[in-house]
Design goal:
Layout (H helix, E strand, L loop, with lengths): L3 E4 L8 H5 L2 H14 L17 H15 L5 E5 L6 H11 L11 E5 L4 H16 L4 E6 L6 H17 L7 E5 L4 H9 L2 E4 L13 H9 L4 H17 L6 H14 L4 E6 L5 H15 L1 E3 L5 E4 L2 E6 L8 H6 L4 E10 L10 H4 L10 H18 L4 E8 L2 H22 L9 H16 L1
Helix pairs in contact: 3-8, 4-8, 4-11, 5-6, 9-15, 10-15, 11-15
Length: 441
């Protein structure tokens, strides 16, 4: 099923010869990745096994059916980074950024910050829901089980829940590593516990219970989501190099990085893909930004991911992108068939301000603007490529996100860094713990 069209040949400024020069090491990395699937979650490439784990999806669906018996009217996902960005990306892509405003059967909120104003507002919304007789589920997600912000927010929201529900444990779902401190706490309290597979890091975990439970509860077809992810893996393993989108994208980014094009801008022409933008930003930043390579040599490498949304950001950053230093490679992401469309009404009084738009569909206008931007980039010799999605559905989104995961792992192999760890993130966590301990003394 051809869900994604990838074009780059005339606009990336990278030649086919430059790409094929590194085809062999990428082929070897793909072979290693494919072989790892037989070992399940036992290797560093555990993310590659996730789309094939049908038992995990069965377990998630069982829990969803159980929790639906409580007639939930609100779900709050408590997590940060890899624990929630994937679910946000998929949900917004398929349900839209104004989902809660549509008065859905189950409202969805994310507690991903300890910002006092935001958490206060979320507590108010939660209390209003409970006072009105609604039922709120809390899904706390932390791979380590000790993420400070996550545990603090869970404590705050759990206190509210316990004021309104005698059997509050029924409304709590813990997603964490088996036998983590949070897992043990959840078992002790009688919470429902979902396991995050071993060796699957947060930013690679969207198709595990981390993303599957909240997405399935919101009515998203996770079977189709995983089918798309599996199709992406099969294409990565079986397509010849020049037809392998993940491999070619890795080779493009590597070649440009070597030419000091060290910024990658994901420019999406769909408001519904804003969450996907932020998910990709973490995937690239945490996976590739490393102080040391695999040999232990200090290298300080990394590609800086930036996010842009069309047409909004054409009126804020396009001047820089078209006139500033040539240090940025852009991936334009466009959707061929939006889920909905609107016709521009014929209003003669306003037509004199912007001629030639009456009777147009908004999707046509968006597509025209995107093509105009691409022409401008080409004239200014700004390197770019285009990912055109046939539509935003579960299969396509699953395919796209899994493709990016493979792409980043391949790029990590070219840069000779470990794409699965994030040792420097622990530095701030250690400092925070030290400061908090001093306050107690």
């Amino acid at each position: 099923m051809n869900t994604i069209s990838f074009t780059y040949q005339e606009t990336s400024t990278v030649t086919q010869e430059q790409l094929t020069r590194i085809a062999e090491p990428l082929s070897q990395e793909l072979q290693t990745m494919q072989a790892s699937i037989e070992q399940g979650y036992a290797t560093a490439y555990a993310f590659a096994s996730v789309p094939y784990d049908t038992q995990q999806l069965i377990a998630v669906h069982t829990i969803v059916q159980e929790k639906m018996q409580l007639n939930p009217t609100m779900l709050i996902v408590i997590g940060i980074g890899g624990s929630n960005l994937g679910a946000i990306a998929v949900h917004e892509a398929l349900k839209g950024s104004l989902y809660n405003a549509s008065n859905p059967a189950i409202k969805l909120h994310f507690a991903d910050t300890v910002d006092a104003n935001y958490m206060y507002d979320l507590v108010v919304l939660m209390e209003q829901e409970l006072k009105a007789g609604g039922n709120v589920l809390l899904n706390v997600i932390s791979k380590s089980g000790t993420t400070t912000e996550t545990i603090v927010n869970f404590e705050i929201l759990l206190t509210v829940l316990e004021r309104y529900k005698k059997r509050s444990a029924d409304y709590c779902i813990v997603t964490t590593d088996r036998d983590s401190k949070l897992w043990q706490y959840g078992i002790k309290k009688g919470y429902t516990c979902l396991e995050i597979p071993a060796n699957v890091g947060g930013r690679y975990s969207v198709f595990t219970s981390v993303g599957l439970f909240p997405l399935a509860l919101m009515g998203i077809d996770c079977t189709k989501l995983l089918e798309g992810a599996r199709a992406s893996m099969e294409d990565a393993f079986n397509q010849q190099f020049m037809h392998n989108n993940a491999a070619v994208r890795a080779a493009l980014l590597y070649n440009l990085y070597k030419r000091h094009i060290t910024i990658h801008d994901l420019f999406v022409f769909s408001k519904n893909l804003a969450g996907y933008n932020y998910w990709y930003r973490q995937l690239m930043a945490e996976s590739l930004g490393k102080e040391f390579n695999k040999q232990g040599k200090k290298v300080n490498v990394g590609i800086t991911p930036t996010v842009s949304i069309g047409t909004t950001d054409l009126h804020s950053v396009a001047q820089l992108y078209l006139a500033g230093a040539i240090e940025r490679f852009t991936t334009f992401v466009v959707v061929d068939k939006p889920m909905h469309d609107l016709n521009i009404p014929p209003m003669q009084d306003l037509a004199i301000l912007i001629p030639s738009v009456e009777h147009l569909e908004l999707a046509t206008l968006m597509n025209t603007i995107n093509k105009g931007v691409q022409v401008a980039y080409k004239k200014k010799k700004r390197p770019f490529c285009v990912l055109e999605l046939s539509q935003l559905d579960e299969f396509t989104v699953g395919y796209l996100m899994q493709m990016h995961m493979v792409e980043i792992v391949l790029l990590g192999s070219l840069l000779q860094v470990n794409p699965f760890d994030q040792p420097n993130v622990e530095l701030y966590k250690e400092e925070v713990r030290t400061m908090l301990m001093k306050r107690e003394q």
